[in-house]
Amino acid sequence: MSDHHSQNTLYLVQHGEAVAESVDARRPLSEAGRATVDQVATWAARHVLAVDQVRHSGKLRAEQTASILAARLQPPRGVVAQSGMAPNDDVRPVAKTLAGEAGSLMLVGHLPFLARLAALLVSGDSERSLIGFRYACLVGLVRDADQWTISCVVPAHLTRPQ
């Protein structure tokens, strides 16, 4: 995993816990959600996850999650909003974009989108249930030639300092 240049690395992160729509229609991260994302970001930085760019769906909870992660990981190409990553969007356009890119990316988004994207990349079937995402869960995928494989699944609770 140390040689990022011969392979593509993709990290998928579900946004942190957000407040209920009844509390705030924009659904920002809750205090607990913010704290958990910061804990995951600290863990990721300590394990030297090299990320060229962090992309998010543009929804507030994903944008806030991406900003916290980027503050720790310092991606050289920054943080950008990417259309087509809403919870129920078709995953094929994003999968197609990824096929043409090199380097290491982090996508911060929502369910069911992230689960469908991971399933499509790894198995070719977006409806296959492969990974149990939870809030602030980090999933690593690696592409060698044209085959994506899952390199790690890190649920937020495993990143708590010992």
Average pLDDT metric:
93
CATH topology, anyone? Rossmann fold
Highest CATH level, the class:
Alpha Beta
User: Strands across the major sheet, in which order?
Assistant: 3-2-4-1-5-6
Supply the number of helical segments. 4
- Main β sheet profile: 6 strands, mixed
**What would you give as the CATH superfamily?**
Phosphoglycerate mutase-like
Distance between the termini: 24 Å
- C-alpha Rg (nearest Å): 15 Å
Order of helices and strands: EHEHEHEHEE
Q: How many domain units?
A: 1
Helical proportion? Answer: 25-40%
Write the layout of secondary structure elements.
Layout: E1 8-14, H1 31-46, E2 53-56, H2 60-73, E3 79-81, H3 92-99, E4 104-109, H4 113-123, E5 138-144, E6 147-154
Parallel strand pairs: 1-4, 2-3, 2-4
Antiparallel strand pairs: 1-5, 5-6
Fold and architecture overview:
The protein is α/β, with parallel strands linked by helices and 162 residues long. The chain has helices at residues 31-46, 60-73, 92-99, 113-123; strands at 8-14, 53-56, 79-81, 104-109, 138-144, 147-154. The chain has a six-stranded mixed beta sheet, with helices on both faces. Helix 1 (31-46) runs parallel beside helix 2 (60-73). The radius of gyration is 15 Å and the shape is globular. The two termini are 24 Å apart.
Overview features:
6 strands; six-stranded mixed β-sheet; disordered N terminus; single chain; Rossmann fold; 30% helix; 162 residues; alpha/beta
